[in-house]
Design brief:
The complex is a heterodimer of chains A (about 170) and B (about 100).
Chain A (H helix, E strand, L loop, with lengths): L2 H22 L3 H21 L3 H26 L11 H25 L15 H8 L8 H22 L8
Chain B lengths: L5 H21 L3 H26 L5 H31 L13
Helix pairs in contact in B: 1-2, 2-3
């Protein structure tokens, strides 16, 4: 049991506990903050797995972007000091049953599958930013330039769509 | 090389996925449902990176899928929040039970 194993279990416990707080808290602002800590813990898990670029993107986009958007929308739409109403008891019981059965089934499947005991560990995993950038914009066989351009069009569409949805409609007299 | 096998990472992401599912089932507030969806998407990202690192260490495809999922999740959150704010403006509530005009 070396330090890496202990760090992994600490990060995993942190992610799961803050995730549980995010979905079970009665105060919406507290659950948004718990979501922020959970996403930061996931970035820590990416650092643990040696994918530094993904960890940086996770912190920038999720922690710096999406959580801030969520907190802004909480301030715009909710009285954030009040507690939210409890969910119905029947709904809670059935969701817990469904979630636990799904969790048991999936964990059982993962446990039985084994994944070939990860035999091909010979090649070291290396995710340099230079390699990622080169392959992202390459037009050869394993390049990702087409989804890159598609995502840029999607972002433009989302930008215009947000403006159109949130725009105040003026009622003009005919 | 660390000694954690891929199975343990998959257990963590499975647990995170079902935590998100629980939030999606029990919450009736749109912002908290959006937060549960973000948890689910993050568990999928962990899966992609873990598969790439442990099963195909010579390639980078899982990393690319993770990048695209993060991008699309950002766009989805922005559009969802625009819809939520617009709904709040017209209904004064963001509870999904109150938004029932298109139901039948």
């Amino acid at each position: 049991m070396n330090a890496s194993v202990i760090i992994f279990y600490c990060i995993a416990a942190f992610i799961l506990i803050t995730g549980l707080l995010a979905v079970m808290g009665r105060k919406i602002f507290r659950s948004a903050i718990a979501l922020l800590f959970s996403l930061t813990g996931i970035a820590g898990l990416y650092f643990w797995m040696d994918v530094n670029f993904i960890a940086a993107v996770q912190i920038i986009v999720y922690v710096g972007g999406i959580v801030v958007l969520i907190i802004f929308s909480i301030f715009l739409t909710q009285r954030s000091g009040e507690e939210m109403p409890k969910p119905l008891m029947k709904r809670t019981i059935f969701s817990v049953l469904a979630v636990l059965s799904g969790l048991g089934l999936t964990c059982n499947l993962i446990n039985q599958y084994g994944f070939g005991s990860s035999s091909n560990q010979s090649a070291a995993f290396k995710a340099d930013v230079a390699d990622i950038g080169t392959q992202m914009l390459s037009t050869t066989e394993h390049g990702f330039v087409l989804p890159f351009e598609l995502v840029s069009i999607l972002l433009l569409a989302a930008l215009i769509g947000c403006i159109v949805i949130a725009m105040k409609v003026k009622h003009e007299e005919k | 090389m660390n000694e954690i096998s891929i199975t343990h990472i998959l257990f963590v992401s499975t647990a995170l996925f079902f935590i998100g599912m629980y939030g999606l089932f029990t919450r009736r507030n749109m912002i908290t449902m959006l937060m549960a969806v973000e948890l689910i998407l993050n568990s999928v990202n962990i899966n992609f990176v873990a598969f790439n690192k442990y099963l195909y260490p010579g390639k980078l495809d899982g990393v690319f899928f993770t990048i695209f999922v993060i991008t699309i999740a950002a766009a989805e959150a922005a559009v969802a929040i625009a819809i939520i704010i617009n709904l709040y403006r017209s209904h004064n509530s963001i509870d999904v039970e109150d938004a029932s005009e298109l139901k039948y």
